[in-house]
Amino acid sequence: MALDPTPLRFEGGRFGEDGYPLDAVVELARYERLVVRVARGLWMVDHPGRQRAPRHFDDSLRLRLVDVRDGSVIPVLERHHVAEEAQLFDPDDWLGKSQAVIAEAISAVANEQPLPEAFPEVGVSDLVQFGSSLWEEEACRFHRNGDGQVRYNQAARRHLIALTASESIQVDGEILGRVGAIDANRQTFEFADRQGRHVSGSFSRRSLIADLRAVTDCDSDAPFVRLACRYTTDEYGHLSAIEDVDELESLVSPDDPLGHQLRQVLELVEGWHDGDGRQIDPEAVEWGRDFAAELNVENDLELSVFPTLDGGLLLERQRDGRRWSLEVDPTGGVFITITRGPGDSEDSAVDGVSEAVESYEAFAQ
Amino acid sequence: MTTPPDLAACQSLIDEGGELQWRQVHPKFVDGDVIAREAFVGTPEATDEVSTTRASVVSGEEAYRHHSDHRGLQTAGSWGIAVHEAQDAQRRVVDDSNCEGVDTPGHSFLDMRDLSKSERRKARNEWAAIATARGRSFP
Questions:
Q1: Distance (Å) from the C-alpha of residue B34 to the closest C-alpha of chain A?
Q2: How many other C-beta atoms lie within 10 A of the C-beta of residue A48?
Q3: Are A318 and B88 a contacting pair at CB < 8 A?
Q4: Cβ pairs bridging A and B (under 8 Å)
Q5: Is A64 within 8 Å of chain B by CB?
Q6: Are B37 and A337 a contacting pair at CB < 8 A?
Q7: Domain A259-364 indexed as CATH 3.10.450
Q8: What is the pLDDT of residues A104-154, one digit of tens each?
Q9: CATH T-level assignment (fold) for domain A170-252
Q10: Which of B127, B120, B116 is nearest to B39 (CA)?
Q11: Model pTM?
Q12: pLDDT digit string (tens) for A197-226?
């Protein structure tokens, strides 16, 4: 199944004239997020033995707006080709499947029916968010493969909200944040996510009490943890509660070398650079953490930690006009650049932490 | 390295080697005296054109004020790169202040449009090293 380049047609209100109104661009971003989330959910259903989607899965499904056609307003989309290596999956096929399932879900909602079984639960909160900025007189028509169009507007969306509000929007997945307090008797805890939003959590396995206690801290330097858990989100897709925890892992603790700086990078929210700047990839931070852990302490204190605009991590040191930089990009690529003077630099890809440590220690000598 | 793209009619090469070009650096790209090489990434629309302003036209303070007060963007200050420093390894500095839509007085850019990803990382590293060594001009 191939990507449908024109899955949406906007009409009414701001869409009554040629061109796409800039204050409605957010709906295209929401559509992209919805398509990617649903595709990932479908992939997980198709691969029940797998814990997570393949590497580069989300990035390979990113969309770009390449044109806007007149006659209502029809955005023309195409896939943004980012990953150059061979894929273990067919991005266009998953995009096409996702679009078809979304169109069927919208059709059900517009007809005041329950969501179809094929629609993955992880996509519900993004489905609710789509269309939230549309005016009452505006609508979006979804193209259905071989089956005409279905019209979605605020009236249909209100039905969707009622449908999903009657039961929690549950998600099985991973969240990052810190544990602020734990009540071992009630098996509950307080949790702050990456945006600093505080929610309550529960856990059924008593064996997690010791793990949770080990990372509980109200201090702003509290360990940053990754929870594999079942959580719920509100209609805006924000974390609202943690229902149960499967596993807990410390991502960055204050005892880690560079722990304080790495935490600050993890806490950056989307748009941290005057509206640009992606949230930093946790795996890039883990790479930096593992690298710093291998260094001897005297050296690592000289390193500066910076975010990159595309969600990666930079570790840099300057000494006597020379500079050593290590960049972990959000697709997993790691590069070291060494500058000795103007026009005198070398740049190479790095395979692992040991190679990076060796390079840094040679520079720092 | 490929052949640099032709300049538009409203653009011109800057070849006054000693003239500084001011770069505004976001606070997240400053750690003490060290500035990140990421400070030399352009806008999402033109990541390979690193916006600067000409010291022959505006002071470091004026460049800072325009960025923060007029454009409402965050900046930790103005750092300078001399034209001859930016030009090492065949990179060039372009004045585009006369182009339509450019409203920053003395606007120029460090041109990386002809460079590969690896060459861009090297260029940014060198410029960050130079700017860090020179230090902040304003405030």
A1: 7
A2: 6
A3: no
A4: 84
A5: no
A6: yes
A7: yes
A8: 999 988 887 778 888 998 888 889 889 888 888 899 999 887 667 889 998
A9: OB fold (Dihydrolipoamide Acetyltransferase, E2P) (2.40.50)
A10: B127
A11: 0.68
A12: 899 999 999 999 999 999 998 777 789 999
